[in-house]
Automatic annotation (TrEMBL):
Gene Ontology terms, MF aspect: pseudouridine synthase activity; RNA binding
CDD domains associated with the record: PseudoU_synth_RluA_like
Gene3D superfamilies given in the database record: Pseudouridine synthase
Phylogenetic placement of the source organism: Eukaryota, Metazoa, Chordata, Craniata, Vertebrata
GO biological process, one term: enzyme-directed rRNA pseudouridine synthesis
Entry's family note: Belongs to the pseudouridine synthase RluA family.
Protein's recorded name: Pseudouridine synthase RsuA/RluA-like domain-containing protein
All residue ranges annotated as the Pseudouridine synthase RsuA/RluA-like domain in the record: 32-186
Amino acid sequence: VHGGLRREPGQGFATMEPVSIDNLSILYQSEDFIVVNKHWDVRIDSKMWYEKLTLQSQLKYRFPELADPGTYYGFRFCHQLDFSTSGALCVALNREAAGSVYKCFKSRTVTKAYLALVRGHIQEAKKTICFAIGKNTSEGLTHMMCIEGTNGCKSPKPCRSELIVLEYGLYSGEPATKVLLQPLTGTEISPPELAQNSSSAMQKRCHSTSFLVCLW
């Protein structure tokens, strides 16, 4: 799998290399855009002085000449990826490019797909997941989304995603399933919600790292 989680012959799933200030994978670069492979467990940017390692700091280290002093963080991030999510993230290098991408997201012409590992073996090869997803307002969980009916779930909105099983294997010695998630409508269903609600074959624990494999 490109830059994400993979399975070695005779072994379990392995992860990409740990993040560092100079370890930034570039998937695409032009005069208008850079598409990077964001690491898992890394923030895109931060106003906190103690957050030294972010995608913004990696970009500034790698491309100091491309940083725009007219923007707060130096770079125009076209969309967001969660802290725990790795994968393709598009960065616009000028205002016009950022505007064109904004129109694509607004008109919903952007295609997104997530590659994820969940604990347990899912029996169905393909299924459609339908849940209403909202913000979690419970203490200590405000950075997460949750499904309707969860304690502290605020303003849930209907969403529908397609799940396709790609491969079975082991993660840390335990059964795991590699799945492709394709958002169809509404907010994307993340692996934690899937692991807790979509199938009795899935255990309630879940590896939260997912990989955005397709932007357009």
